[in-house]
């Protein structure tokens, strides 16, 4: 089964929820995981089944990175806030790097997320 991670910084969570609502039928076909707070908001607002990891600042980004390193993920939608520094920036950099190392599809904005979801559907 296709496995996709959904992550969003605080300022982008509403955008990710709207994206998930717009793509809900397709996302229901996937095995989904997310960082803690993002995952709970997605569950509450979409009803999607999502495996929740820790919150990003508590290691959730690294947990998802471990899934990438084990080749267990097909793609990640990570809506980042490019205008704010994050306290766990080293974890975010590690996740981005491991996606590059393992050639895992990574969307960091809504436009690329659309392409990722369309590509996984093929």
From TrEMBL:
Q: What class of enzyme is it?
A: lyase
Domain named MGS-like: residues: 1-122
**Binding positions (substrate):** 9, 13, 35-38, 55-56, 88
Q: Does the keyword 4Fe-4S apply?
A: no
Q: Which CDD domains match?
A: MGS (cd01422)
User: What is the reaction catalyzed?
Assistant: dihydroxyacetone phosphate = methylglyoxal + phosphate
Q: Which UniProt keywords apply?
A: Lyase, Pyrimidine biosynthesis
| UniProt-listed Enzyme Commission number(s) | 4.2.3.3
- Record Pfam families: MGS
One of the protein's GO biological processes = pyrimidine nucleotide biosynthetic process
* MF terms in GO: methylglyoxal synthase activity
Q: Where is the active site?
A: 61 (proton donor/acceptor)
- Please tell me whether the keyword Metal-binding is annotated for this protein: no
InterPro entries given for it? Methylgl_synth, Methylglyoxal_synth_AS, MGS-like_dom, MGS-like_dom_sf
SUPFAM superfamilies recorded:
Methylglyoxal synthase-like
The Swiss-Prot or TrEMBL record describes its family as follows:
Belongs to the methylglyoxal synthase family.
Give a short account of what the protein does.
Answer: Catalyzes the formation of methylglyoxal from dihydroxyacetone phosphate.
* Name this polypeptide is given: Methylglyoxal synthase
Q: Which organism is the protein's source?
A: Halosolutus amylolyticus
What phylogenetic lineage does the species belong to? Archaea, Methanobacteriati, Methanobacteriota, Stenosarchaea group, Halobacteria
